[in-house]
Amino acid sequence: MIYLDNAATSWPKPRSVYKEIVHCMRKYGANPGRSGHMMAIKASEKIYECRESLCKMFGISNPLCISFTSNTTEALNIGIKGILKPGDHAITTSMEHNSVVRPLKKLESLGVKLSIARADKDGRINAEDILNLVNEQTKLIIVTHASNVTGTIVPINDIGRMARERGILFMVDAAQTAGILPIDVDSMGIDILAFPGHKGLLGPQGTGGIYIREGVSVDTL
Predict the structure, then answer these.
(1) Which residues make Cβ contacts (< 8 Å) with residue 193, sequence separation at least 6?
(2) pTM
(3) Sheet with strand 89-93: strands edge to edge
């Protein structure tokens, strides 16, 4: 079989992934943090080890700034809906996945102002076009790191720098790049990072995560 759908989910997974999943189910597949027996403790240790590995990959200093989700879509919804309130202004691009566009459009109907930076004919985003959309109410800039349709890469270094200089929160959808392209949240000025576990990180389906920088308040109610 020739498999060309890795933008949706990676396949096949490395043999080590299959082996560890089976090992988990047999040796420590208990609820972490819910009990004091050895299997539950081992499960908690594995979760923290995973957080530490992600910190090394993404340049994150505090493992507790990472939360696990069922996929990138859930992570994006947590960040977008947890940050924006009626009267806020958000900027995104025309290259975004529905998991970004739909929650933004829903919030727009509730009073959030939305601006969309348009890509050029080759599907590329110019950081200056995003800067030109900034106003006094701009609270969040959210962009994909790379398009799942065209493969074009967004200049998140430039956008992150401009956002940080202006005190605007910067969120990145790393669905297509986590584990593929280098990501350093500090040097790139990323405040919130949403990522999947089952694509470039080669993990099982039903896994994802979100990084939220210390000091950023996200309403989860």
Answers:
(1) 58, 171, 172, 174, 183, 185, 210, 211
(2) 0.94
(3) 66-69, 208-212, 192-196, 169-173, 138-144, 89-93, 113-117
